[in-house]
Amino acid sequence: MATVIVTESNLEEIKASDKTVLLDFYADWCVPCKRLGPVLEDISEENPDIIVGKINVEDEPDIAEEFGIMSVPTLIVLKYGDEADKAVGFRTKAQILDLLD
């Protein structure tokens, strides 16, 4: 499954999913965010049971505020709509997979 662009219009639907959700808060100007993009695409393709959502903090400041995002990249894992884990800064594929367990 490809990554999903998360906006105000689909956030609640994604949060309500019974699948594990990995939210990537990013900005277009952020170099570590750009490096993280292909890693998240790989994880998304290899793990169809996980929803990988991308949230541009400049386009969706209300969502960033709701989740208390202070810097990018920030990854948040949701399970049954609740925050289960969080990581700030670039993470390797292995580190992200550990977050999801």
Describe this structure in words.
With 101 residues, the chain is an alpha/beta fold. It has 4 helices and 5 strands. It is globular, with a radius of gyration of 12 Å.
Q: How many H/I helical runs?
A: 4
CATH topology: Glutaredoxin
Largest sheet: 5 strands, mixed
Average pLDDT over all residues = 96
Across the major sheet, the strand order is 1-3-2-4-5
Count of distinct strands:
5
List keywords for this structure.
single chain; 101 residues; alpha/beta; Glutaredoxin; 35% helix; globular
Task: Reconstruct the topology from this structure.
Layout: E1 4-5, H1 11-15, E2 20-26, H2 31-46, E3 50-56, H3 61-66, E4 74-79, E5 82-88, H4 93-100
Parallel strand pairs: 1-3, 2-3
Antiparallel strand pairs: 2-4, 4-5
Please provide a brief summary of the model.
By secondary structure, the chain is an alpha/beta fold. It is 35% helix and 29% strand.
